[in-house]
Design brief:
Elements: H1 3-8, H2 14-22, E1 43-46, E2 49-51, H3 54-63, E3 71-75, H4 81-87, E4 93-98, H5 101-114, E5 118-122, E6 135-140, H6 149-153, E7 155-165, E8 172-179, E9 185-193, H7 201-205
Parallel strand pairs: 3-4, 3-6, 4-5, 6-7
Antiparallel strand pairs: 1-2, 7-8, 8-9
Bound molecules: S-adenosylmethionine (SAM).
Length: 217
């Protein structure tokens, strides 16, 4: 696949590389896109949405620094591919939320059929999944223009969050946050990315709240 590309671009976590080797990306894309499934680029999955580029999936997974026993929340299930990669990391429990009902349903069925243990839910991931919080790791695979405060609240102390933040329709910044003991957030700029926008009532009601990319320390 694109493992050589992914490794050449600096992904070294063997558990992430193994997950990228084993999860069958061609079973997460529409049939007419299957021949392109192992190229290092995003592909359309319907409803104006995409399955992310494999390198970005690998990078975001590595940045989460997952350990056995960790509980991880994904916002933006899409095809279910990223969730399957997360579920392939030994000892990690995965929760995933998708806002588009048809994608939420098809991803849930696909993940079950392929044997990946992922707790799936349809809804607005802006608000996280409070019933299962706190999470040791949170990954957001669509871009809001600010960091949703409920996700910060639902991140455990010592937890890591990886999230693209920026204006819709352009490039965004990929941020990694680490919540220190005591609740202080450390922010690390991981570079430029291009994601579809986070949509839904949560992000729309709070758009531009506190200024662009608030509250990045
Ligand atoms: N992780 C996905 C995968 O592996 O296929 C790709 C994600 S795609 C780039 C972004 C997804 O986020 C879309 O399926 C979109 O519908 C979803 N999304 C957008 N806003 C959302 C929200 N507020 N809550 C949950 N999902 C959302």
């Amino acid at each position: 696949m694109v493992i050589e590309t992914i490794q050449a671009r600096g992904i070294t976590d063997e558990r992430v590389l193994e997950a990228m080797r084993t999860v069958p990306r061609h079973l997460f894309v529409p049939e007419e896109e299957r021949e392109y499934a192992y190229g290092d680029f995003p592909l359309p999955i319907g409803f104006g949405q995409t399955i992310s580029q494999p390198y970005i999936v690998a990078l975001m997974t590595e940045l989460l620094e997952l350990k056995p026993g960790d509980k991880v929340l994904e916002v933006g299930t899409g095809s279910g591919y990223q969730a399957a990669v997360l579920a392939s990391i030994p000892g990690v429990e995965v929760y995933s939320i998708e806002i588009i009902p048809e994608l939420a349903q098809s991803a849930k069925e696909r993940l079950e059929r392929l044997g990946y243990r992922v707790h799936c839910k349809q809804g607005d991931g802006y608000y996280g999944w409070p019933e299962h919080a706190p999470f040791d790791a949170i990954i957001v695979t669509a871009a809001p223009d600010h960091v949703p405060p409920p996700l910060i609240d639902q991140l455990a102390e010592g937890g890591r969050m990886v999230i693209p933040v920026g204006p819709p329709g352009g490039y965004q910044t990929l941020w990694k946050f680490v919540k220190e003991e005591g609740g202080e957030l450390k922010a690390y700029n991981m570079g430029g990315v291009a994601f579809v926008p986070l949509t839904g009532p949560g992000v729309e009601e709070h758009q531009h709240e506190g200024g662009m990319e608030w509250p990045i320390p």
